[in-house]
Amino acid sequence: MKETDFRWIATWVVVTVITFFIVQVAKGQTLGINGAGFFENRTEQSDEWLHELFDGQDWVLRMPGGAIAKFADPTVSRGWGLTYDGIDSIQPAYGNPEEEAQENALQKWRRKADAQPDISYLPELVAFCQEFGCKVIWVANIFIPTNKAVYPVQYLLDNGVEVVAVELGNETYSQVDHDFGQFLSKSQGVASWCKSNGLPISYPAAPTGRRSRNDHQAWKSYLQS
Fold this sequence. Notes:
This protein has 9 helices and 5 strands. It has helices at residues 3-26, 44-54, 84-94, 105-114, 121-132, 146-158, 172-175, 180-196, 214-224, and strands at residues 31-34, 59-63, 135-139, 163-167, 201-202. Strand 1, helix 2 and strand 2 form a beta-alpha-beta unit. The longest helix is centred in the first third of the chain and has 24 residues, at 3-26. Residues 1-28 have low confidence and may be disordered.
């Protein structure tokens, strides 16, 4: 396939996605974007598209998004705060192939830690929300001490960002081997802090499609009980 063909396909995908967002905005729904890799890949062009899509609209950004949530420690002033110590203590215990391929995962996340910028993304997130008028769903890291896990939420609130919900981890059902009791134990501190501060919390839900699994169904049952 020629390079021009790749460019045409990429352009078609971008136009399709933008068209989808425009249609949904026209329907009056609140839109949201998952922020995995958001600041790492932000460009002037992407900012222009976001202004075209969302200026004057009610929308939400889910941060930090994706598997990085279980390593993020924003009390560390580098990117989302990935460190070797955090990765080495969390990945062997909570890595799971349901979430991502585990072969060389430790090395992959160490490389991501090396690639973190020398500034925190939190001030950039505040500035972004001020410019684009968006709200935030924060994905909390339940594998670090509660005071560290809620630090970014308090930081956003103190700087005028509306946090509409705090999600208790990302794909946590796989990380704790579908053990809801272990999940509650890990997330209890963050959940209690959120409730005391009047913030809604969100529990990760295991997918239950046509090929439903007993462990996924059990997780769903706990959520519904």
